[in-house]
Amino acid sequence: MASTTPHGAESSYDYVIVGGGTAGCVLAARLSEDPDCRVCVIEGGPSDVGDERILRLRNWINLLGSEFDYGYTTVEQPRGNSHILHSRARVLGGCSSHNTLISFLPLPQDLDDWVAHGCTGWDPATILPYRDRLLTKIVPVAEADRNPIAKDFVTAASRATGVPVIDDFNAEPFADGTGFFSLAYEPEGNLRSSTSVAYLHPVMDRRPNLTLLLETWAHRLLTDESGRLTRVAVRGADGEPATVRAERELLLCAGAIDTPRLLMLSGIGPAEDLRRLGIEVQVDLPGVGENLLDHPESVMVWETKEPLPPNSAMDSDAGLFLRLEKGQPRPDLMFHFYQVPFTVNTERLGYPVPEHGVCMTPNVPRARSIGRMWLRSSDPAEHPALDFRYFTDPGGHDERTIVEGLKLAREVAATEPLSGWLVREVAPGPDVTSDADLSEYGRRAAHTVYHPAGTCRMGAADDPMAVCDPELRLRGVEGVRIVDASVFPTMPTINPMVTVLLAAERAADLLTGKPGPTGKATAR
Protein backbone atom coordinates (compact mmCIF):
# COMPACT_ATOMS: atom_id res chain seq x y z
CA MET A 1 0.00 0.00 0.00
CA ALA A 2 1.23 3.50 -0.79
CA SER A 3 1.26 6.55 1.43
CA THR A 4 2.75 10.03 1.14
CA THR A 5 3.10 10.60 4.87
CA PRO A 6 4.40 8.43 7.72
CA HIS A 7 1.64 7.42 10.12
CA GLY A 8 2.13 9.01 13.53
CA ALA A 9 5.28 10.20 15.22
CA GLU A 10 6.95 6.77 14.97
CA SER A 11 5.99 3.66 13.04
CA SER A 12 7.78 0.32 13.13
CA TYR A 13 8.35 -2.52 10.67
CA ASP A 14 10.54 -5.57 10.42
CA TYR A 15 12.62 -4.12 7.60
CA VAL A 16 12.94 -0.47 6.65
CA ILE A 17 14.34 0.18 3.17
CA VAL A 18 15.71 3.68 2.65
CA GLY A 19 15.39 4.35 -1.07
CA GLY A 20 12.74 2.93 -3.40
CA GLY A 21 15.13 2.77 -6.33
CA THR A 22 16.66 0.04 -8.46
CA ALA A 23 17.75 -2.13 -5.52
CA GLY A 24 15.11 -1.01 -3.03
CA CYS A 25 12.22 -2.20 -5.18
CA VAL A 26 13.80 -5.64 -5.55
CA LEU A 27 14.31 -5.99 -1.80
CA ALA A 28 10.81 -4.73 -1.02
CA ALA A 29 9.23 -7.29 -3.30
CA ARG A 30 11.38 -10.20 -2.15
CA LEU A 31 11.15 -9.53 1.60
CA SER A 32 7.39 -8.93 1.50
CA GLU A 33 6.81 -12.34 -0.10
CA ASP A 34 6.61 -13.51 3.51
CA PRO A 35 3.17 -12.26 4.64
CA ASP A 36 4.36 -12.13 8.25
CA CYS A 37 7.25 -9.81 7.39
CA ARG A 38 6.38 -6.11 7.59
CA VAL A 39 8.36 -4.08 5.05
CA CYS A 40 8.50 -0.31 4.67
CA VAL A 41 10.09 1.60 1.78
CA ILE A 42 11.04 5.26 2.25
CA GLU A 43 11.23 6.98 -1.14
CA GLY A 44 11.85 10.68 -1.63
CA GLY A 45 10.01 10.87 -4.94
CA PRO A 46 6.50 10.14 -6.17
CA SER A 47 5.03 6.95 -7.60
CA ASP A 48 5.59 6.10 -11.25
CA VAL A 49 2.29 4.23 -11.55
CA GLY A 50 0.34 5.53 -14.54
CA ASP A 51 2.82 8.32 -15.30
CA GLU A 52 3.56 8.12 -19.02
CA ARG A 53 6.48 10.55 -18.64
CA ILE A 54 8.26 7.89 -16.60
CA LEU A 55 6.91 4.69 -18.09
CA ARG A 56 7.70 5.43 -21.75
CA LEU A 57 11.36 4.63 -22.18
CA ARG A 58 12.08 6.99 -25.05
CA ASN A 59 11.14 9.97 -22.88
CA TRP A 60 14.22 9.44 -20.68
CA ILE A 61 16.09 12.42 -22.05
CA ASN A 62 13.29 14.76 -20.97
CA LEU A 63 13.61 13.54 -17.38
CA LEU A 64 17.14 14.95 -17.06
CA GLY A 65 16.99 18.13 -15.04
CA SER A 66 13.25 17.73 -14.43
CA GLU A 67 11.30 17.54 -11.17
CA PHE A 68 12.26 13.84 -11.11
CA ASP A 69 15.99 14.67 -10.91
CA TYR A 70 17.95 15.59 -7.78
CA GLY A 71 20.46 17.25 -10.11
CA TYR A 72 23.81 16.94 -8.36
CA THR A 73 26.82 18.85 -9.67
CA THR A 74 30.59 18.48 -9.32
CA VAL A 75 33.27 20.62 -7.82
CA GLU A 76 35.78 22.16 -10.25
CA GLN A 77 37.40 19.52 -12.47
CA PRO A 78 40.78 20.93 -13.57
CA ARG A 79 41.30 18.21 -16.19
CA GLY A 80 37.68 17.50 -17.05
CA ASN A 81 34.30 19.13 -17.50
CA SER A 82 33.14 21.05 -14.44
CA HIS A 83 29.60 21.55 -15.78
CA ILE A 84 28.23 17.99 -15.68
CA LEU A 85 24.79 17.47 -14.19
CA HIS A 86 24.86 14.18 -12.31
CA SER A 87 21.24 13.15 -12.58
CA ARG A 88 19.88 11.02 -9.73
CA ALA A 89 16.28 9.89 -9.90
CA ARG A 90 13.57 11.17 -7.59
CA VAL A 91 10.81 8.65 -8.32
CA LEU A 92 9.78 5.12 -7.40
CA GLY A 93 12.09 2.76 -9.28
CA GLY A 94 14.99 5.17 -8.96
CA CYS A 95 17.37 5.26 -11.87
CA SER A 96 15.64 2.27 -13.47
CA SER A 97 12.69 4.67 -13.89
CA HIS A 98 14.96 7.42 -15.21
CA ASN A 99 17.73 5.95 -17.35
CA THR A 100 17.94 4.19 -20.72
CA LEU A 101 17.70 0.69 -19.17
CA ILE A 102 20.70 -0.64 -21.09
CA SER A 103 21.14 -4.06 -19.47
CA PHE A 104 24.41 -5.98 -19.38
CA LEU A 105 25.39 -8.82 -17.10
CA PRO A 106 28.69 -8.08 -15.39
CA LEU A 107 31.54 -9.85 -17.13
CA PRO A 108 33.05 -12.71 -15.11
CA GLN A 109 36.34 -10.84 -14.75
CA ASP A 110 34.49 -7.90 -13.17
CA LEU A 111 33.33 -10.19 -10.37
CA ASP A 112 36.77 -11.79 -10.14
CA ASP A 113 38.07 -8.27 -9.44
CA TRP A 114 35.61 -8.01 -6.55
CA VAL A 115 36.83 -11.28 -5.06
CA ALA A 116 40.40 -10.02 -5.38
CA HIS A 117 39.32 -7.00 -3.33
CA GLY A 118 38.22 -9.26 -0.48
CA CYS A 119 34.57 -9.75 -1.46
CA THR A 120 34.16 -13.44 -0.75
CA GLY A 121 30.89 -14.81 -2.13
CA TRP A 122 30.73 -12.43 -5.09
CA ASP A 123 32.44 -14.72 -7.59
CA PRO A 124 30.87 -15.36 -11.01
CA ALA A 125 29.66 -18.85 -10.08
CA THR A 126 27.71 -17.43 -7.14
CA ILE A 127 26.38 -14.19 -8.63
CA LEU A 128 25.69 -14.78 -12.32
CA PRO A 129 23.03 -17.51 -11.77
CA TYR A 130 20.87 -14.88 -10.06
CA ARG A 131 20.13 -13.68 -13.57
CA ASP A 132 17.45 -16.35 -13.82
CA ARG A 133 15.58 -14.81 -10.87
CA LEU A 134 15.34 -11.32 -12.34
CA LEU A 135 11.78 -10.18 -12.99
CA THR A 136 12.72 -7.36 -15.34
CA LYS A 137 12.20 -8.27 -18.98
CA ILE A 138 15.59 -7.93 -20.67
CA VAL A 139 15.63 -8.34 -24.45
CA PRO A 140 17.73 -7.10 -27.37
CA VAL A 141 16.32 -4.00 -29.05
CA ALA A 142 13.32 -5.14 -31.07
CA GLU A 143 13.56 -5.25 -34.86
CA ALA A 144 10.86 -2.58 -35.19
CA ASP A 145 13.00 -0.22 -33.08
CA ARG A 146 16.19 -0.74 -35.09
CA ASN A 147 16.71 2.51 -36.93
CA PRO A 148 18.37 2.16 -40.35
CA ILE A 149 21.24 4.46 -39.39
CA ALA A 150 21.88 2.46 -36.23
CA LYS A 151 21.99 -0.71 -38.33
CA ASP A 152 24.47 0.97 -40.65
CA PHE A 153 26.55 2.07 -37.65
CA VAL A 154 26.81 -1.56 -36.54
CA THR A 155 27.89 -2.66 -40.01
CA ALA A 156 30.41 0.16 -40.33
CA ALA A 157 31.78 -0.42 -36.82
CA SER A 158 32.41 -4.08 -37.57
CA ARG A 159 34.05 -3.29 -40.91
CA ALA A 160 36.24 -0.52 -39.50
CA THR A 161 37.44 -2.33 -36.40
CA GLY A 162 37.17 -6.02 -37.28
CA VAL A 163 35.09 -6.89 -34.21
CA PRO A 164 32.17 -9.31 -34.57
CA VAL A 165 28.52 -8.31 -34.72
CA ILE A 166 26.86 -9.68 -31.58
CA ASP A 167 23.15 -10.52 -31.58
CA ASP A 168 22.75 -10.74 -27.78
CA PHE A 169 25.47 -9.33 -25.55
CA ASN A 170 24.07 -11.29 -22.59
CA ALA A 171 24.17 -14.68 -24.28
CA GLU A 172 27.76 -15.26 -23.18
CA PRO A 173 30.76 -13.19 -22.03
CA PHE A 174 32.46 -11.25 -24.82
CA ALA A 175 35.81 -9.56 -25.33
CA ASP A 176 34.73 -7.10 -28.01
CA GLY A 177 31.92 -6.62 -30.51
CA THR A 178 29.27 -4.34 -31.89
CA GLY A 179 25.52 -4.60 -32.05
CA PHE A 180 22.22 -3.51 -30.58
CA PHE A 181 21.98 -3.37 -26.81
CA SER A 182 19.71 -5.41 -24.60
CA LEU A 183 17.18 -3.26 -22.76
CA ALA A 184 14.80 -3.81 -19.86
CA TYR A 185 11.65 -2.89 -21.75
CA GLU A 186 8.45 -4.06 -23.40
CA PRO A 187 8.94 -3.16 -27.08
CA GLU A 188 5.20 -3.02 -27.68
CA GLY A 189 4.29 0.37 -26.31
CA ASN A 190 7.93 1.29 -25.55
CA LEU A 191 7.31 0.66 -21.85
CA ARG A 192 9.95 0.35 -19.16
CA SER A 193 10.53 -2.91 -17.36
CA SER A 194 12.03 -1.02 -14.43
CA THR A 195 12.31 -2.57 -10.99
CA SER A 196 9.24 -0.66 -9.87
CA VAL A 197 7.25 -1.94 -12.85
CA ALA A 198 8.54 -5.51 -12.69
CA TYR A 199 8.82 -6.05 -8.94
CA LEU A 200 6.37 -3.68 -7.22
CA HIS A 201 3.50 -2.80 -9.54
CA PRO A 202 2.07 -6.35 -9.52
CA VAL A 203 2.07 -6.59 -5.70
CA MET A 204 1.96 -3.13 -4.17
CA ASP A 205 -1.82 -3.11 -3.73
CA ARG A 206 -2.04 -6.78 -2.76
CA ARG A 207 0.32 -7.00 0.18
CA PRO A 208 -0.88 -5.33 3.37
CA ASN A 209 2.55 -6.06 4.86
CA LEU A 210 4.23 -3.72 2.33
CA THR A 211 4.15 0.03 3.01
CA LEU A 212 5.50 2.66 0.61
CA LEU A 213 6.18 6.05 2.13
CA LEU A 214 6.45 8.21 -0.99
CA GLU A 215 7.70 11.79 -1.20
CA THR A 216 9.28 11.12 2.17
CA TRP A 217 12.84 12.31 2.69
CA ALA A 218 15.16 10.36 5.01
CA HIS A 219 17.74 12.73 6.45
CA ARG A 220 19.28 11.03 9.49
CA LEU A 221 19.70 7.62 11.12
CA LEU A 222 19.00 7.54 14.85
CA THR A 223 19.68 5.14 17.69
CA ASP A 224 16.97 3.55 19.79
CA GLU A 225 16.85 3.31 23.58
CA SER A 226 19.36 0.44 23.54
CA GLY A 227 21.83 2.38 21.41
CA ARG A 228 21.24 0.36 18.21
CA LEU A 229 20.90 2.24 14.94
CA THR A 230 17.32 1.24 14.12
CA ARG A 231 15.44 4.47 13.41
CA VAL A 232 15.24 6.84 10.44
CA ALA A 233 14.31 10.48 10.82
CA VAL A 234 12.12 11.54 7.89
CA ARG A 235 10.05 14.41 6.61
CA GLY A 236 6.84 13.61 4.79
CA ALA A 237 5.35 15.42 1.84
CA ASP A 238 3.56 17.70 4.30
CA GLY A 239 6.89 18.70 5.85
CA GLU A 240 6.09 17.11 9.18
CA PRO A 241 8.88 15.19 10.94
CA ALA A 242 8.48 11.55 11.92
CA THR A 243 10.60 8.50 12.62
CA VAL A 244 10.45 5.00 11.18
CA ARG A 245 11.89 2.08 13.14
CA ALA A 246 13.30 -1.22 11.89
CA GLU A 247 12.79 -4.16 14.24
CA ARG A 248 15.13 -6.43 12.28
CA GLU A 249 17.37 -4.44 9.93
CA LEU A 250 17.76 -1.08 8.23
CA LEU A 251 18.57 -1.44 4.54
CA LEU A 252 20.22 1.55 2.87
CA CYS A 253 19.43 1.61 -0.85
CA ALA A 254 19.63 5.33 -1.59
CA GLY A 255 22.41 5.07 -4.17
CA ALA A 256 26.09 5.92 -4.43
CA ILE A 257 25.55 9.58 -3.52
CA ASP A 258 22.70 9.58 -1.04
CA THR A 259 23.65 6.48 0.96
CA PRO A 260 27.06 7.85 2.03
CA ARG A 261 25.47 11.28 2.45
CA LEU A 262 22.92 9.83 4.87
CA LEU A 263 25.62 7.95 6.77
CA MET A 264 27.76 11.04 7.18
CA LEU A 265 24.79 13.16 8.29
CA SER A 266 24.21 10.44 10.90
CA GLY A 267 27.79 10.61 12.24
CA ILE A 268 29.15 7.60 10.35
CA GLY A 269 32.16 8.39 8.21
CA PRO A 270 35.58 10.07 8.36
CA ALA A 271 35.69 11.31 11.97
CA GLU A 272 37.74 14.46 11.47
CA ASP A 273 35.62 15.62 8.53
CA LEU A 274 32.45 15.12 10.54
CA ARG A 275 33.78 16.93 13.62
CA ARG A 276 34.70 19.95 11.52
CA LEU A 277 31.05 20.21 10.55
CA GLY A 278 29.83 19.84 14.11
CA ILE A 279 28.45 16.35 13.55
CA GLU A 280 28.78 13.99 16.51
CA VAL A 281 30.78 10.96 15.43
CA GLN A 282 29.01 7.63 15.93
CA VAL A 283 31.42 5.42 13.97
CA ASP A 284 34.73 6.46 12.44
CA LEU A 285 34.59 4.90 8.95
CA PRO A 286 37.14 6.66 6.74
CA GLY A 287 35.94 4.88 3.58
CA VAL A 288 32.50 6.52 3.52
CA GLY A 289 32.44 8.82 0.50
CA GLU A 290 35.77 7.63 -0.86
CA ASN A 291 36.30 5.47 -3.99
CA LEU A 292 33.84 7.50 -6.11
CA LEU A 293 33.71 5.76 -9.49
CA ASP A 294 32.12 6.58 -12.85
CA HIS A 295 32.18 5.75 -16.55
CA PRO A 296 33.47 8.99 -18.11
CA GLU A 297 32.89 9.55 -21.79
CA SER A 298 33.34 12.17 -24.47
CA VAL A 299 31.35 12.87 -27.62
CA MET A 300 31.74 13.45 -31.35
CA VAL A 301 28.90 14.99 -33.35
CA TRP A 302 28.09 14.63 -37.05
CA GLU A 303 25.45 16.36 -39.12
CA THR A 304 23.31 14.07 -41.26
CA LYS A 305 22.00 14.86 -44.73
CA GLU A 306 18.36 14.71 -43.72
CA PRO A 307 16.10 13.83 -40.82
CA LEU A 308 16.52 10.26 -39.64
CA PRO A 309 13.78 7.65 -39.77
CA PRO A 310 11.70 8.01 -36.60
CA ASN A 311 11.89 4.51 -35.11
CA SER A 312 14.01 3.89 -32.01
CA ALA A 313 13.76 2.32 -28.57
CA MET A 314 15.50 5.18 -26.74
CA ASP A 315 17.75 6.96 -29.30
CA SER A 316 20.96 5.25 -28.17
CA ASP A 317 20.21 1.68 -29.15
CA ALA A 318 23.55 0.34 -30.41
CA GLY A 319 27.16 0.34 -29.34
CA LEU A 320 30.72 -0.80 -29.94
CA PHE A 321 33.15 -2.50 -27.55
CA LEU A 322 36.88 -2.71 -28.27
CA ARG A 323 40.11 -3.91 -26.75
CA LEU A 324 42.92 -1.40 -27.09
CA GLU A 325 45.07 -3.98 -25.27
CA LYS A 326 44.39 -6.99 -27.46
CA GLY A 327 45.49 -9.63 -24.97
CA GLN A 328 42.88 -8.66 -22.40
CA PRO A 329 39.63 -10.64 -21.93
CA ARG A 330 37.39 -7.55 -21.59
CA PRO A 331 36.76 -4.37 -23.56
CA ASP A 332 38.69 -1.30 -22.44
CA LEU A 333 36.87 1.14 -24.76
CA MET A 334 33.16 1.37 -25.46
CA PHE A 335 30.85 3.59 -27.50
CA HIS A 336 27.19 4.48 -27.42
CA PHE A 337 25.74 5.56 -30.77
CA TYR A 338 23.18 8.34 -30.38
CA GLN A 339 20.58 8.86 -33.09
CA VAL A 340 20.10 12.43 -31.86
CA PRO A 341 22.67 15.23 -31.63
CA PHE A 342 23.64 15.10 -27.94
CA THR A 343 25.17 18.56 -27.78
CA VAL A 344 24.73 19.79 -24.19
CA ASN A 345 28.52 20.01 -23.74
CA THR A 346 29.67 20.86 -27.25
CA GLU A 347 27.23 23.77 -27.51
CA ARG A 348 28.69 25.23 -24.31
CA LEU A 349 32.13 25.08 -26.00
CA GLY A 350 30.83 27.10 -28.95
CA TYR A 351 30.08 24.37 -31.47
CA PRO A 352 26.92 24.68 -33.58
CA VAL A 353 23.90 22.41 -33.06
CA PRO A 354 22.96 20.60 -36.27
CA GLU A 355 19.28 20.28 -37.03
CA HIS A 356 19.82 16.60 -37.82
CA GLY A 357 22.72 14.61 -36.45
CA VAL A 358 24.21 11.64 -34.69
CA CYS A 359 26.89 11.14 -32.04
CA MET A 360 29.43 8.59 -30.93
CA THR A 361 30.54 8.66 -27.31
CA PRO A 362 33.90 7.01 -26.54
CA ASN A 363 33.71 5.80 -22.95
CA VAL A 364 36.25 4.50 -20.42
CA PRO A 365 34.93 1.16 -19.08
CA ARG A 366 37.19 0.81 -16.03
CA ALA A 367 38.44 4.31 -15.38
CA ARG A 368 41.53 4.61 -13.18
CA SER A 369 40.72 8.11 -11.97
CA ILE A 370 39.02 7.75 -8.60
CA GLY A 371 37.23 10.53 -6.77
CA ARG A 372 35.51 11.18 -3.47
CA MET A 373 32.47 12.96 -2.05
CA TRP A 374 31.93 14.80 1.22
CA LEU A 375 29.45 16.94 3.08
CA ARG A 376 29.60 20.70 2.69
CA SER A 377 27.70 21.22 5.94
CA SER A 378 25.55 19.42 8.50
CA ASP A 379 22.40 20.71 6.77
CA PRO A 380 20.60 17.73 5.17
CA ALA A 381 19.16 20.03 2.51
CA GLU A 382 22.56 21.05 1.14
CA HIS A 383 23.91 18.96 -1.72
CA PRO A 384 27.19 17.17 -1.03
CA ALA A 385 30.42 17.96 -2.84
CA LEU A 386 31.26 15.51 -5.63
CA ASP A 387 34.80 15.34 -6.97
CA PHE A 388 35.13 12.61 -9.58
CA ARG A 389 38.72 13.71 -10.36
CA TYR A 390 38.16 12.98 -14.02
CA PHE A 391 41.29 12.27 -16.08
CA THR A 392 43.68 12.57 -13.14
CA ASP A 393 45.01 9.01 -12.98
CA PRO A 394 48.81 9.21 -12.77
CA GLY A 395 49.45 7.00 -15.80
CA GLY A 396 47.09 8.91 -18.09
CA HIS A 397 45.10 5.79 -18.99
CA ASP A 398 41.71 7.51 -19.03
CA GLU A 399 42.90 10.41 -21.18
CA ARG A 400 44.58 8.06 -23.69
CA THR A 401 41.46 5.94 -23.89
CA ILE A 402 39.35 8.96 -24.85
CA VAL A 403 41.88 10.14 -27.45
CA GLU A 404 42.02 6.69 -29.06
CA GLY A 405 38.25 6.55 -28.93
CA LEU A 406 37.87 9.82 -30.79
CA LYS A 407 40.23 8.58 -33.49
CA LEU A 408 38.38 5.29 -33.83
CA ALA A 409 35.04 7.08 -33.98
CA ARG A 410 36.30 8.93 -37.05
CA GLU A 411 37.30 5.65 -38.65
CA VAL A 412 33.82 4.24 -38.11
CA ALA A 413 32.21 7.45 -39.44
CA ALA A 414 34.35 7.26 -42.58
CA THR A 415 33.23 3.68 -43.30
CA GLU A 416 30.23 2.73 -45.43
CA PRO A 417 27.36 2.39 -45.02
CA LEU A 418 27.41 4.93 -42.14
CA SER A 419 29.49 7.47 -44.04
CA GLY A 420 26.74 7.81 -46.66
CA TRP A 421 24.45 9.38 -44.07
CA LEU A 422 26.89 12.05 -42.89
CA VAL A 423 27.49 15.57 -44.16
CA ARG A 424 30.25 16.79 -41.86
CA GLU A 425 31.87 16.39 -38.49
CA VAL A 426 30.52 19.18 -36.31
CA ALA A 427 32.49 18.57 -33.12
CA PRO A 428 35.37 18.70 -32.66
CA GLY A 429 35.74 19.20 -36.41
CA PRO A 430 38.22 17.67 -38.88
CA ASP A 431 40.97 20.20 -38.08
CA VAL A 432 41.37 18.85 -34.55
CA THR A 433 43.85 16.05 -35.16
CA SER A 434 46.80 16.06 -32.74
CA ASP A 435 46.67 13.94 -29.61
CA ALA A 436 47.04 17.07 -27.49
CA ASP A 437 44.14 18.83 -29.20
CA LEU A 438 41.95 15.74 -29.14
CA SER A 439 42.68 15.34 -25.45
CA GLU A 440 41.84 18.96 -24.70
CA TYR A 441 38.56 18.74 -26.61
CA GLY A 442 37.70 15.25 -25.35
CA ARG A 443 38.14 16.20 -21.69
CA ARG A 444 36.30 19.54 -21.95
CA ALA A 445 33.36 17.95 -23.78
CA ALA A 446 33.32 14.96 -21.43
CA HIS A 447 30.11 13.75 -19.90
CA THR A 448 28.80 10.98 -17.69
CA VAL A 449 26.43 8.11 -18.35
CA TYR A 450 25.16 8.47 -14.79
CA HIS A 451 26.96 5.52 -13.19
CA PRO A 452 28.31 6.77 -9.83
CA ALA A 453 29.42 3.86 -7.65
CA GLY A 454 31.86 2.69 -5.01
CA THR A 455 31.41 5.20 -2.18
CA CYS A 456 30.59 2.59 0.52
CA ARG A 457 32.62 -0.23 -0.90
CA MET A 458 32.59 -3.70 0.58
CA GLY A 459 35.76 -5.54 1.43
CA ALA A 460 37.58 -7.88 3.78
CA ALA A 461 37.81 -7.41 7.54
CA ASP A 462 41.41 -6.18 7.28
CA ASP A 463 40.61 -3.55 4.64
CA PRO A 464 40.65 -0.21 6.49
CA MET A 465 38.67 1.57 3.77
CA ALA A 466 35.91 -1.01 3.42
CA VAL A 467 32.58 0.36 4.64
CA CYS A 468 30.70 -2.94 4.67
CA ASP A 469 31.62 -6.60 4.70
CA PRO A 470 30.90 -9.10 1.89
CA GLU A 471 27.47 -9.74 3.42
CA LEU A 472 26.77 -6.01 2.97
CA ARG A 473 26.72 -5.33 6.73
CA LEU A 474 27.79 -1.84 7.74
CA ARG A 475 31.06 -2.05 9.61
CA GLY A 476 30.90 -1.21 13.31
CA VAL A 477 27.10 -1.12 13.37
CA GLU A 478 24.67 -3.93 14.10
CA GLY A 479 21.53 -4.31 12.00
CA VAL A 480 22.33 -2.06 9.02
CA ARG A 481 23.16 -3.20 5.48
CA ILE A 482 23.88 -1.32 2.28
CA VAL A 483 22.43 -2.56 -1.00
CA ASP A 484 23.13 -0.33 -3.99
CA ALA A 485 26.00 0.61 -6.33
CA SER A 486 27.87 2.29 -3.49
CA VAL A 487 29.09 -1.15 -2.34
CA PHE A 488 30.95 -1.83 -5.62
CA PRO A 489 34.69 -2.10 -4.89
CA THR A 490 35.43 -1.63 -8.60
CA MET A 491 33.32 -0.57 -11.55
CA PRO A 492 31.79 -3.23 -13.82
CA THR A 493 33.04 -2.85 -17.36
CA ILE A 494 29.67 -1.94 -18.89
CA ASN A 495 26.40 -0.30 -17.79
CA PRO A 496 25.99 -1.49 -14.18
CA MET A 497 22.22 -1.60 -13.64
CA VAL A 498 21.95 -5.39 -13.91
CA THR A 499 24.83 -5.73 -11.45
CA VAL A 500 22.72 -3.74 -8.97
CA LEU A 501 19.78 -6.09 -9.62
CA LEU A 502 21.94 -9.14 -9.00
CA ALA A 503 23.30 -7.59 -5.80
CA ALA A 504 19.77 -6.90 -4.56
CA GLU A 505 18.62 -10.45 -5.28
CA ARG A 506 21.73 -11.73 -3.52
CA ALA A 507 21.03 -9.44 -0.56
CA ALA A 508 17.51 -10.82 -0.22
CA ASP A 509 18.98 -14.30 0.22
CA LEU A 510 21.56 -13.04 2.73
CA LEU A 511 18.75 -11.48 4.77
CA THR A 512 16.38 -14.45 4.69
CA GLY A 513 18.92 -17.25 4.76
CA LYS A 514 17.58 -18.77 1.56
CA PRO A 515 20.03 -20.65 -0.66
CA GLY A 516 21.19 -18.94 -3.80
CA PRO A 517 20.65 -20.37 -7.28
CA THR A 518 23.13 -22.89 -8.56
CA GLY A 519 24.44 -23.69 -12.00
CA LYS A 520 25.23 -21.56 -14.99
CA ALA A 521 22.87 -18.70 -15.74
CA THR A 522 20.85 -19.50 -18.82
CA ALA A 523 20.39 -17.10 -21.71
CA ARG A 524 17.03 -15.50 -22.29
Which terms would index this structure?
524 residues, alpha/beta, 8-stranded mixed beta sheet, 6-stranded antiparallel beta sheet, 12 helices, 25 strands, 21% strand, globular
In terms of topology, how is this protein built?
Layout: E1 2-3, E2 10-18, H1 22-31, E3 39-42, H2 52-55, E4 72-73, E5 85-86, H3 108-116, H4 124-127, E6 138-140, H5 148-161, E7 177-180, E8 182-186, E9 191-192, H6 195-200, E10 210-213, E11 217-223, E12 229-235, E13 241-252, H7 255-265, E14 268-269, H8 271-276, E15 283-284, E16 296-297, E17 300-304, E18 318-322, E19 333-338, H9 344-348, E20 357-363, E21 372-374, E22 385-387, H10 397-413, E23 422-427, H11 435-444, E24 447-448, E25 480-482, H12 497-512
Parallel strand pairs: 1-10, 2-3, 2-13, 3-10, 13-25, 14-15
Antiparallel strand pairs: 4-5, 6-8, 7-18, 8-9, 11-12, 12-13, 16-24, 17-20, 17-23, 18-19, 19-20, 21-22
Question: Would you kindly provide a written description of the structure presented here, covering whatever features stand out?
Answer:
- It is built from 12 helices and 25 strands.
- Strands 1, 2, 3, 10, 11, 12, 13 and 25 form an 8-stranded mixed β-sheet that branches. A 6-stranded antiparallel β-sheet has the order 7-18-19-20-17-23. A 3-stranded antiparallel β-sheet has the order 6-8-9, with no helix packed on it.
- Helix 1 (22-31) packs parallel to helix 12 (497-512), helix 5 crosses helix 10 (397-413) and helix 10 (397-413) crosses helix 11 (435-444).
- The chain has helices spanning 22-31, 52-55, 108-116, 124-127, 148-161, 195-200, 255-265, 271-276, 344-348, 397-413, 435-444, 497-512, and strands at 2-3, 10-18, 39-42, 72-73, 85-86, 138-140, 177-180, 182-186, 191-192, 210-213, 217-223, 229-235, 241-252, 268-269, 283-284, 296-297, 300-304, 318-322, 333-338, 357-363, 372-374, 385-387, 422-427, 447-448, 480-482.
- The longest helix is centred in the last third of the chain and has 17 residues, at 397-413.
- 21% of the residues lie in helices and 21% in strands.
- By secondary structure, it is an alpha/beta fold.
- The model has no long low-confidence stretch (mean pLDDT 96).
- This is GMC family oxidoreductase N-terminal domain-containing protein.
- Belongs to the GMC oxidoreductase family.
